[in-house]
Automatic annotation (TrEMBL):
InterPro entries linked to this entry: AB_hydrolase_fold, DUF676_lipase-like, Lipase-like
Organism listed in the record: Aquilegia coerulea (Rocky mountain columbine)
Lineage: Eukaryota, Viridiplantae, Streptophyta, Embryophyta, Tracheophyta
Pfam families found in the cross-reference section: DUF676 (PF05057)
Protein name: DUF676 domain-containing protein
Source organism, top-level taxon: Eukaryota
Residues of the DUF676 domain: 43-265
Length: 316
């Protein structure tokens, strides 16, 4: 059935319902909500999960993953595939995209007043966009304004919130947290210093303002590059405080076969930290997962099984 009012359309593919809204696509279990977003059971999901695509990506990149989340956790999640930053809009810069995502999340929360928790899953550059957005959406803990010793504040309030919701999980998959500048940060440049230096000067011809951010060439004389500013709170953007508000934070990196995002920048580790693993072996330690099997790589890249663990409060 379709409803064309307010640019919304509802589709039902049992057991998953989806609704296209200006700015993205919402998915939920049909057993929990009806087409008007009214509770149809005593158990209504109260956990929003925001999925953010990477550079030149679209909501279709997350279609399979979003459906699996709802199937696995039908009574807990409302999954939202962000559409505010897709295709060529992903070239506008991480800060611009972060502001758009923040606005989209606020609108999503208003559409789902029953929501109490929120999580983010970002793929590639989408992880950086999500980090910027939560810095904008962060609300300091209420306990800061109460007398010391007050026990009224919840655990979520003591950490701070994301637009009033308890921050649960922040997960990135193959995200260049340290940028793309440096030796072997972009594997398809073959680690050749001359080529990597040339890329630094011409990348904005292809990826425009986003390219400047990724290669740390966006700094003005009186400022440092955006990605460096995002390692701490910066004015009214609480980048680090927002990350600390989440109960669980995880980043997934590919040891090999990822020619765009290098292992060091995705894992925030030194090359000497690269674990020694055997073919088909899987190691998960300190919230970091690695896999060296080409056959297994595609599955780990999406990280669905491990992400399910985080969404329900477990670990790898």
């Amino acid at each position: 059935m379709d409803n064309n009012n307010n640019n919304e359309s509802i589709k039902q593919e049992s057991p998953i319902c989806s609704k296209s809204v200006d700015g993205g696509v919402d998915l939920w279990s049909c057993n929990n909500k009806d087409k008007d977003n009214k509770d149809s059971s005593s158990s209504s999901p109260d956990h929003l999960v925001i999925l953010v695509n990477g550079i030149l990506g679209t909501t279709k990149d997350w279609k399979f993953g979003a459906e699996q989340f709802v199937k696995q956790l039908p009574h807990q999640l409302i999954v939202h595939c962000s559409e505010r930053n897709v295709s060529k809009l992903t070239l506008d810069g991480i800060d611009v995209m972060g502001e758009r995502l923040a606005e989209e999340v606020v609108e999503l929360i208003h559409r789902n007043p029953e929501a109490r928790k929120i999580s983010f899953v970002g793929h590639s550059m989408g992880g950086l966009v999500a980090r910027y957005a939560i810095g904008r959406l962060y609300r300091p803990p209420k306990s800061d304004n109460t007398e010391e010793g007050s026990n009224d504040a919840s655990d979520g309030d003591s950490r701070g919130t994301i637009c009033g919701l308890e921050a649960m999980n922040f997960i990135t998959v193959a995200t260049p947290h340290l940028g793309s500048r440096g030796n072997n940060q972009v594997p398809f440049l073959f680690g050749v210093t001359a080529i990597e230096k040339v890329a630094t000067y011409v990348i904005h011809w292809i990826f425009r303002r986003t390219g400047r951010h990724l290669f740390l060439t966006d700094a003005d004389k009186e400022e440092v590059p955006l990605l460096r500013r995002m390692v701490d709170d910066c004015g009214d953007l609480h980048f680090m405080s927002a990350l600390q508000a989440f109960h669980r934070r995880a980043t997934y990196a590919n040891v090999g076969y990822d020619h765009i995002v290098g292992w060091r920048t995705a894992s925030i580790r030194r090359i000497s930290d690269l674990p020694k693993v055997l073919l088909l072996s899987f190691t998960c330690a300190q919230n970091m997962c690695w896999c060296c099997s080409p056959w297994f790589l595609k599955f780990i890249r999406s990280g669905l099984t491990e992400i399910f663990c985080y969404l329900v409060g477990g670990f790898c």
